[in-house]
Every structure is written in C-alpha cells, then in structure tokens.
Amino acid sequence: MYDGEVEKLKHKNALEQLHWDLVNRFEFSEILVDALMRRFKLFLEENDVVDELGRLTYWATAADQPPGRSQGEMRKVQVRLALCHPEDIAILQHGGTKAVRKRRIMRMACEAKEQGALLTQEDLALLLCNAPRAIRYDIKAIRNEGIEVPTRGYMADIGKGVSHKVKIVELYLMGLGYPEIERRTQHSQESIDRYVRDFSRVVYLLERDEPVERIRQVAMMSESLVREYQRIYEGFSGKDLPRMKEVLAEVSSKKSLQRKKRGGSLR
C-alpha cells in the first residue's frame, strides 16, 4: 500500500541530501560519491534526530524548488519540527485526538515554511503516522474553516495563502470569543493571545512610521507576516470594531508614554 507515496519519501533524508550536494554542488564522480557515502553513513547513523527542545530533524523539499521535478532532483532543507507541544495537552482534553492531529498538521507545515521548506501530504502522513487519505481529509477540513495550510502542493498551485496567525487575528478583531476561535483554528488561548500581542507590536511600529524592514528586525518576524499584519491594520482601522479600537488605544497610550519619557530625559 502507498507505494507511490513511500517512493517519494525515500529521497527525503540526510543521506539523500548529502548525495545530492556531492553530485550537483561539488560535481564529484559517481565512484567517489559512492565511496564517500559509505564512509559518511557510519557517522550519520549515529546522528541524533531530536534536539534538546524535543523538536524533530526532518529533510523537506526547499520552498524554492519548481514543480515538475522528481524528489531525487530537488534540493532539500533540514528543518526542526515540533511534533509535541505543551498546548497539545489542552487541545487533547477539549477536542480529542483528531483536534490534536489537525493542530500538528498546521504547526509543522508552518514551521517548515518559516524555515524555507514546504511539507507534502506524504511528509505529514509519515510524521504523524497516519494514512495520506486522513491527512488530506484533515487539511480539507482546516481549509473549510478559512485557514490555509502551506503544503507544497497547495503553494505550488495557488501561491501564498492566508496564514493561521493572520486568520486568528482577524477573527479576534471581528469580536469572536476565545472558545469559538479555539474551535475554528485548533489553537489554544495562549497562542491566540501571543498572535494578538505580535499584531499590536506591529501596529505600534507602523504608527511610528517605521519601515517594514525595520519592523521585521525589531519584532523578529518574517517580512511576509509583517506585511499581512500591515494589511489587517490598514483594512480594519477604519471599521467600527471594539477590539480594533482597543488595540489602537493601547498603541496611542504607548506612544504618549514614550513622548513623556523623551521629554523627561531632555530636562
């Protein structure tokens, strides 16, 4: 069963990436590559695939690889993926194992994307020890909630989707309660609060007329996420939304406090 999916996965590991580098980047002969691979394998077999934070090391296809190539021809990227996370416990308690699986699908797909790679449905099936059909069903259910899962197939066919962070902030600003946001997105209240704080930080810096590149550095976010938060800020600022007004009021208060501090330092 799943012969096609398994065949693709055979090319996604440290040894295959090393083989690819030796052939494509260094242009070594096949005889030399084979000899080196046998030697390197002794060291790679002892490689620890779990770091001190419990994240898995996984070789995924680089996000910049074009479609139409076989897995053996594409460059891979080593990524760290959080298979288990403290918030999974609360999700398990309230939503069961299916809810945890959906959360892990979103988390690992987004983690890979942030590290320059894109997971396939076959990758997720292997990582979560589920059939590809179950993964496809879960991804469809997540997308029906209006949240995008950045898998390789989707990003290659459609392009950039709306990230889960952006969707959660939008739901929050629209006035949805925490239980409903948690149900729709399979995220804990802790995660929701964190994304809202990140959004508020971006709004504060935008209000100070900081450029996107500066905001990216200060907030330690990707440029794409900063721009998505900027889009929300520009689109929601003029709407009669109590939570958006709260964010703007908090930002205004911070700006006033900063002006007072600067004024006091000049005395």
Top keywords for this entry?
single chain; mainly alpha; 267 residues
Radius of gyration: 22 Å
Number of domains: 2
Order of helices and strands: HHHEEHEHHHHHHHHH
Low-confidence stretches: none
Helix content: 55-70%
- Counting helices, strands and paired strands, the structural category is mainly alpha
Total DSSP helices: 13
Give the overall pLDDT as a whole number: 81
Q: Summarize the biggest pleated sheet.
A: 3 strands, antiparallel
Query: Number of DSSP strands?
Result: 3
How far apart are the first and last residues' alpha carbons, in Å?
77 Å
What is the strand arrangement across the widest sheet? 2-1-3
Strand content: 5-15%
User: What coarse outline follows from CA principal-axis ratios?
Assistant: globular
Description:
The protein folds into two domains: about 1-160, no CATH class; about 160-265, no CATH class. About 65% of the residues lie in helices and about 5% in strands. The protein has 13 helices and three strands. The protein has a three-stranded antiparallel beta sheet with strand order 2-1-3, covered by helices on one side. α5 (about 120-130) crosses α6 (about 130-145) and α10 (about 190-205) packs across α13 (about 240-265).
